[in-house]
């Protein structure tokens, strides 16, 4: 049976949030609620306590620190999309945020909630991987390459709260996605970033979890041009096949979106 109700708790600080979690029997954190609330409505999740961390001031900010752009986990997608700081540092990240869902989702959903949920077709995970980000929690720092571990799974431990994501500023970058016409989720989306230490390409919406496309990275490291990918084969064996697209079609789209991203990068000074 599912519980008829849950306790709603709203802490003012991260410390208080942790205390509430530790004293609860089966608590879940919630910020924008764009993933958890639908899951609860469908009885896929039924926490005994709902700890709302959306009003904690320390979780909402955007600031540049040298070659990093730090964004608080509680920052809304709409605020990232509209930020002059983000646009000036990593325009591709502002573009990505503006493509998430619809206006209602963008004004409620948060960066931290998106990556903690790790939906296979979410946009932000691709940016975290491609921009070689570091995810900071209330306990530790987690490199992007170690954060996403599987479908709806991350390296986060019980009670751990994402507090910020520090994105590494690329030389240039671009994000392109083929959106689901209803949900606007990526099917797929490809983020390409050129760093001083090389090319990083992250793909979302194609497989069970966001991943780095090593075959695309290797090709683009040799020559950063869209036609470089003409002869690259994107394997479809591990891709999702559903009502909206077959695995083979997703493989085709991954290459097309990657080529469009490279074209966009080359046409802009910042990418």
Write the topology of this structure.
Blueprint: E1 7-9, H1 14-23, E2 27-30, H2 36-41, E3 49-52, E4 62-65, E5 68-72, H3 77-82, H4 84-89, H5 91-98, H6 103-106, H7 111-117, H8 124-130, E6 134-137, E7 141-143, H9 144-147, E8 148-150, E9 153-154, E10 162-168, E11 172-179, E12 186-195, E13 198-204, E14 211-212, H10 214-222, H11 247-267
Notes on the protein architecture:
- This protein has a five-stranded antiparallel beta sheet. Strands 11-12-13-14 form a four-stranded antiparallel beta sheet, sandwiched between helices. The protein has a three-stranded parallel beta sheet with strand order 1-3-2, with helices on one face.
- It is globular, with a radius of gyration of 18 Å.
- The chain contains eleven helices and 14 strands.
- It folds into two domains: 7-52, Uridine Diphospho-n-acetylenolpyruvylglucosamine Reductase, domain 2, CATH 3.30.43.10; 60-267, Uridine Diphospho-n-acetylenolpyruvylglucosamine Reductase, domain 3.
- It is 32% helix and 24% strand.
- It is an alpha+beta fold and 271 residues long.
- It has helices at 14-23, 36-41, 77-82, 84-89, 91-98, 103-106, 111-117, 124-130, 144-147, 214-222, 247-267; strands at residues 7-9, 27-30, 49-52, 62-65, 68-72, 134-137, 141-143, 148-150, 153-154, 162-168, 172-179, 186-195, 198-204, 211-212.
- A hairpin with a 6-residue loop joins strand 11 and strand 12.
């Amino acid at each position: 049976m599912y519980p008829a109700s849950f306790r709603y708790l709203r802490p003012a600080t991260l410390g208080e949030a942790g205390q509430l979690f530790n004293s609860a029997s089966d608590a879940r954190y919630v910020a924008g609620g764009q993933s958890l609330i639908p899951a609860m409505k469908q009885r896929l999740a039924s926490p005994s306590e709902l700890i709302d961390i959306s009003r904690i001031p320390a979780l909402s900010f955007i600031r540049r620190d040298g070659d990093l752009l730090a964004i608080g986990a509680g920052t809304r997608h709409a605020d990232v999309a509209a930020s002059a700081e983000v646009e000036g540092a990593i325009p591709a990240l502002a573009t990505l945020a503006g493509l998430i869902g619809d206006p209602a989702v963008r004004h409620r959903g948060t960066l931290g909630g998106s990556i903690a949920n790790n939906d296979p077709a979410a946009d932000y995970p691709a940016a975290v991987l491609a921009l070689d980000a570091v995810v900071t929690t209330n306990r530790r720092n987690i490199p992007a390459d170690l954060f996403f571990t599987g479908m709806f799974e991350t390296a986060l431990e019980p009670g751990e709260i994402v507090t910020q994501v520090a994105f590494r500023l690329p030389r240039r970058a671009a994000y392109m996605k083929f959106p689901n016409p209803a949900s606007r989720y990526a099917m797929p989306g490809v983020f390409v970033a050129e760093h001083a230490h090389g090319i990083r390409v992250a793909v979302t919406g194609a497989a069970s979890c966001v991943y780095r496309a090593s075959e695309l990275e290797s090709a683009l490291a040799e020559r950063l041009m869209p036609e470089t990918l003409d002869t690259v084969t994107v394997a479809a064996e591990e891709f999702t096949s559903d009502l909206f697209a077959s695995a083979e079609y997703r493989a085709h789209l991954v290459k097309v979106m990657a080529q469009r991203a490279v074209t966009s990068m080359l046409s802009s000074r910042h990418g």
